[in-house]
Design a protein that fits this description.
Two copies of one chain form a homodimer. The first copy, chain A, has one domain: Orthogonal Bundle (Arc Repressor Mutant, subunit A). Chain A is built from six helices and two strands, in the order H-H-H-E-E-H-H-H. A two-stranded antiparallel sheet of chain A has the order 1-2. In chain A, a hairpin with a 5-residue loop joins strand 1 and strand 2. In chain A, helix 1 crosses helix 4. The first copy, chain A, is globular and about 50 Å long. At the A-B interface, helix 1, helix 4 and helix 5 of A face helix 1, helix 4 and helix 5 of B. Chain A binds a DNA duplex through helix 3.
DNA sequence: TTAATCGGTACCGGATTAGTACTATTTATG
DNA sequence: CATAAATAGTACTAATCCGGTACCGATTAA
């Protein structure tokens, strides 16, 4: 399946909290409490988001994190991308096919960037503003032909 | 990062082989040899694809697998979806939010199906026919703003 | 009858991820 | 100026999941 790491999953949850906070900084502890997530994890994720430039961090008493841009200017792709690090497993979907031992028997590799881009575009089309709507209009049923294609969203699992 | 399992990755490789075979059945061993993939793995994947109705299997001597539909009628979403099984980790992105212990503190969950569908649509727009073109026109560079969003396509890694 | 091939299940090892612990650094506030 | 509240960084452990293998049964053309 196509899955997203739990880190990115939590990241989206936290970002929606901050979107609703309207620029006012929130501490990691407050966010963890609000979403019922483990504090160290929340802390780690917020740090990463700040490093990626999506959040502004304010240290010291009364400090916290706040959005660096307006919710409408932040996409799901931004958040997920920020939390996934520039991992090395990108060889065949990215630009550098060097070091690909199977290249001579693989005519498909050139197509991965296309798929890549298609998914990226899909994720970029969804803004944080949209995701922050408190009660979304229950979207139309997923029209998978025979089997549900699932994103591994573990955010709400036990 | 957003990653695809290696199984699905191999699956696409194998499907392109079969697309080029033009209806003529190929044995698992032949496909494994052609793509330089481990035979047991190939066997496992082909079985799953056949069960999903994407391949037709012919047992016995001179048997093998062949496409159940025309390459143009099979999408990347079909292949990936077939290999990812109806895992249980779908609770929050699928339809049934039941059993989600954090539901009351999670206003985002309702949005996962949307993201889900967006990605699904992207994958469905790419047909096996397109992917089987021997040497694809090197697609335009991936226009990620600051960081490459990567699909973990490990097909061509060592 | 035989050999080639698909079908299914169970299992193991390794890699990645989730989560934790600890310490240093910054800063508002009294 | 001292203190407490908060972020920043790093290293580490534990659990899960994935890739891969092995084995045996069922089919079927020759």
């Amino acid at each position: 399946m196509i899955r997203i790491t739990r880190e990115a999953d939590y990241g989206i949850l936290l970002m929606t909290c901050l979107a609703q906070a309207e620029g006012q900084p929130r501490s990691a502890a407050a966010l963890a409490q609000q979403r019922r997530l483990p504090l160290p994890m929340v802390s780690k994720i917020l740090k990463a988001l700040a490093r990626a430039g999506l959040l502004i961090s304010q240290r010291g008493v009364q400090g916290g994190y706040s959005l660096a841009r307006l919710p409408a200017e932040i996409s799901a792709a931004d958040i997920i991308g920020a939390l996934e690090g520039p991992l090395a497993i990108t060889e065949c979907s990215g630009e550098n096919h060097d070091g690909c031992s199977r290249l001579e028997h693989c005519e498909v590799s050139g197509h991965w960037p296309r798929i890549n881009q298609a998914i990226y575009a899909a994720l970029q089309s969804i803004s944080l503003l949209e995701m922050s709507r408190p009660d979304p209009p229950r979207p139309v049923r997923f029209h998978a032909p025979h089997r549900v294609m699932a994103i591994n969203a573990t955010s709400s699992l036990v």
